[in-house]
Amino acid sequence: MKLQRIGALGALSMIAFANVAQAEYPERPVNMVIPYGAGGATDISARLIAEPLGTAVGKPLVMANITGAGGATGSVSVQNASPDGYTMLFARVGSHTVSPAMKATLPYTLDDFRFVTVYEINPVACAVNARSDIETMDDLIAKAKSEGVSYSSSGVGTLLHIAAAMVLNEFGIEDPTTSATHIPQKGGGGAATAVLNGTADMVCTNSSTLASFVKNGQLRPLLVTTEEPIPGFDAPTAVELGKPALTQLVGWTGIAGPDDLPDEVVEKWGGWMETATSDAEFRDALTANGSIIELMSPAEAQEFIQTQYETFRGLVDKLGMRVEG
Amino acid sequence: MSMLDSLAAGLALVGNLEAFLALAGGIAIGVIGGAIPGMSATMAVALTLPFTFAMQPITGILLLLGVYKGGIFGGSIPAILIKTPGTPASSATVLDGYPMAERGEAGRALGMSLWASCTADLVSNLALILVAGWLASFALSFGPPEFFTLILFSLTIIAGVSGDSLLRGALSAMLGLLLATVGLDLVYGTNRFTFGDPSLMGGLNFIAVLIGLFAIPEVLAMVWHPTGHLGKARKLGHNRVTLADYRRSFVSILRGSFIGVFLGSIPGIGAAPSAFLAYSEARRKSPNRANFGKGEIEGVAAAEAGNNGVAGATLIPLLALGVPGDVITAIIIGAFMVHGLQPGPMMFIMNVDIIYGLFLGLLISSVFLLIIGSVAIRGFRYVADVPRRLLVPVVLILCIYGVYAVNNNVFDVGVMFAMGWVGFLMMRCHVPAAPFLIAFILGPLLEDNFRQAMLMSGSDPSILVRGPITWFFWALTVITVVAILRSGLKSRRDAAPSGTPDPSPRS
Amino acid sequence: MNNRQTQTRLGLGAVIFSLLLAGLAIPRWVSSPSNVPNIVLSPLFWPYVLAGLTGLTGLGLLASRAFQDDDPTPINPPIDDPRRGALRLAGMALLMVVAMGLMSWLGMVWTCMGLLLATALLVRTRHPRAAMICAVAAPLLLYAFFAHVAGVAIPQGQLVRLP
Questions:
Q1: Which interval of the chain is the signal sequence (chain A) (predicted)?
Q2: What's the mean pLDDT when you consider all of chain A?
Q3: Looking at chain B, which subunits does it touch, using at least 3 CB pairs closer than 8 Å as the criterion?
Q4: ipTM of the prediction
Q5: b/e code B23-52 from CB counts within 10 Å (16+ = b)
C-alpha cells in the first residue's frame, strides 16, 4: 500500500519533470547566488541589477548570499548545481580570476563555469594615507627600495592582494613578495581602514571603495588603472605613467552558470542583460557608485575573463605567489 | 551654521509623518526579525536595505537604524523564552534569562530586558551626539597591537561566565578557540582542518555554532528525559518587571551601557562581546553574584544594556570616519552610498542637516522601542505557555530554517546538529557553554591581530607595547587575571574544609 | 558519574585530545608554506599553542581532583529508564542523519514535517493531535515566511515543488 503510493508519487513527479523539460525556460523563479556578504560591492551591484533583470526575465530572481572562503563557498554551490539555468552565480574578479590564479587548492577552475555576461567594470585605484609623505608613485617606489612598504588587502587571493603586487612589480620592484609586506585584513572595508590607521602604507582596490575617503581628504590616490582619469581622483592613470599593462587590472562583476549550461539558456541571458542594462535607473545607480557599465556578450565575457586569468596566472608564477597548501 | 540652525534644519528633515512611520516600522520589523532565531538583526537589516533605495535618504536610513535597534532587542525574546538567542548579541541574555523563564518569570525577564535595552539605547544615542567627534579620533588609534591587547583583556570575561569551575570554563574556551581555527589561514591562505571540503574552507558559521550549542542540547535533553520538566513551575509569568527591579539593576545597566558605548565606538568588536563583558562586570560587582547564572534579573539587565549600548555607538566611527564598526553598519553604509552620501568628516560640513536629523530620529527611536517592544513582549510571552514537548520539536524545525537562511547552506544545518551533540555532552559534564562561544568569537580576532601586528613590525614583539593604549590594556589584563586567581584560590580554601561542591542548579 | 569522576574524565580527555592534536591532526591537516620568515607567523603556530594550552588545562583538571572530596552524589539526577533514554538519543541521532540526507532530495519543508512529527513522538508528547497539526503547519508557515517574505531560497525537493 505504502510502496504503491510512493510509486505513484514517483510516476507523478516524472510526469511533472517531463513537463518542466518541455516548458519554456524560465518557468519558475531563478536562484541567483551572491558569493559575498550583504552590503559588499558584489552584493550591491547584484541587487541593483536584480530589479531590471527580474522584469526582463519575467520570473522572480531569488537572491541568495552564500559567503565564505573568498567567494569559493558560493561558487562551489553553483558549480555543483544542475545546469538547468535555475541556479546562476554573480561571479566576481576575486572568486573567478584572482583566486583560480593563486590558489592550488581551490575546489573549482574557470572551466567549471560558463559565463553569460560581464556587465560591470570597477576601476582600481591605489592610495596611501593623506598624512604620509608619499606624494607620487615614485615616492612610494623609493620608499619600497629603501625601507620597504606594506600593503593591506581583504585576504589572500583577492583583487587587492594581486593588485598591489602587480603595481609594485610593474614599477620595478623585482620581488614584491619579500620586499613588500602583505598585511591581510578581513573584508574590503578593513583594508582601507588599515591604511587610515597606519597599519599598512598602501592599498589598491576598487575606486568606489576609496571614493569617500579620497573626497574627505583622508586618503591620497597615487594611481588609477583605467585609460581615462576617474572623476574625483586627482591621480595619473596607468597609461600616463607609461604602464599600459596595468589596464588589465580592473574589477568586474558578471553572471555565470555551471559549465554545461545549454546554449539556448545562454542566449536568453544575453538578451535579458541587454534589456536590463539599458534601464536608466540602474545605469544611474551603478555609475553613481563609481562603476563603469560595459555589457559583454557571452563570448566576449568568456574571452575577457580568460585573458585576465592568464595575465594574473603569469604574474603569480613569476612572483611565486601561488598558494599550494 | 550654528548648532541651533543645524538642529532646526535636522528637525525639518525628520519632523514629518514619513520619518516617524519609517522609524516605527523599522523597529517593528527589527523586533520580529530579531525574535526569529537565525534571522538575526544583520539579516533583517540586509533584507530591508533594498526597500530604502526609493526613499528619501533620511527616511531610509532611519528605517534601517530602526531595524538594527529593534533587532538587537528582539534577539533577547527567544533567548529568554526558548534558550535560542535570536541574534548573536543576545547570547549573554540566555545565561540568566532562560533560568528565569524556567522559574516562571519570563514576563519579568522580558520586561527587564526591554527596560535595560531602552536605557542603554538612550545612553548610547546621547554618547553618539555628545562625543562622536572625540571618540572617533580615538578609534583610529586602534591598530592591530591595540586590538590584540583589548581582545586579550576581553578573554578574561571567560572567568566571569565559567560558573563553578574556572578550569572547566577554560577547557570549554580551548575547544572554542580550536574550532575557530577551521578554515583558510588569513595570512597565507592555506587550509586548516578543512579536510578538503569546500564547505569547511569558509570556517564554521557562527550562527550555526551558536544555535547548535544553546538550542539543540535542550532538544536532546528532552529526548533523553522527556518528563524531566514536569513539576517544575513553568506556568508563564504574567508577572511584570517592577520599578524596584529596575532600581536595583540600574547601576549594572549604566555600567553595561558605557561598556557598550566604548566597545561600539571601536570598529570590529560588535555587540556580542560587549554583552558578555557587561555581564561579567555586573557579576563581579554585584552583591547577588552568587545568584548569577541561576536566574538573576540583574544579569539579564546587564547583558541587554551591553548589547544595546553598542547600537548607537557603532554610528560614531561610521559618521565621523566612514568606517563601519560591524557587519550591520557596513550594510547601512551601503544605504548612505546609494543616496550619494559619503559618511566621514566631510559629512559634518556638507550634510549637517542630515546628521542632526539622524540624531533627533535616534533620540525618538528609544521611545518607540519601548512602546513597540512592550507590545511584542505581550504577544510573544505566551510561547512559554505552550506544552514543552510540543514546543521543543517546533523549535528544532525553526532552528533548521533559521540556520539555513543565514548563509543559504544546508551544510550549516549539519554543523548545528553536530554542535548540538557537543553542547549536550558539555551540559552532561557540567562544562559551561558560554566560554566556548566567547572564545569562538574572539579567538580569530586575537590570532589575526597578533599576526598582523607581527607583520607590521617584522616579527618584533615590542610592537605589542607600542603606546599608552596597549599599556592600559596590558595593565588591566594583569590586574584582572590576578584578581581571578586570588578569588579562585580563596574560594578553594573556603570550600576545602566543607568539601561538597555546589549542588548543580539543573541537569 | 560523580563530580570527581567527571573531573578525571574531562582532564584525561583534554590531555589525550591535545596529544592527538599535536601529534596527528595538526601536522596532517594544517598546511603551511615553506618560506615563512618567522615561526610566530606560521599558520601552525596558533594551533600548536592551543593544543599545548588544552593539555595544560587537562593537567590542571587532573591536579585539582586533589582538592575535591569523593562525594558520591552523581552530578546529573538519574532518570527512570536510562536504557530507553539512550535508545531515544540514538534514535534522535539517526533522525538527524536521515534528515540531512533527505534534505536535498525531498526538500526542506517535507523533511521538516517528518522530523517534527518523529521528534514529537520520540519525546512521547501528550498531545499527538496537536503535534500532527504543528508538523504540517509549522514547516509550511516557515516556508511561506522565509521564501516569500524574506526572499530566502529554501531548498525545494526533486518530487513536489511548492509555489
A1: 1-23
A2: 86
A3: A, C
A4: 0.93
A5: bbbbbbbbbbbbbbbbbbbbbbbbbbbbeb
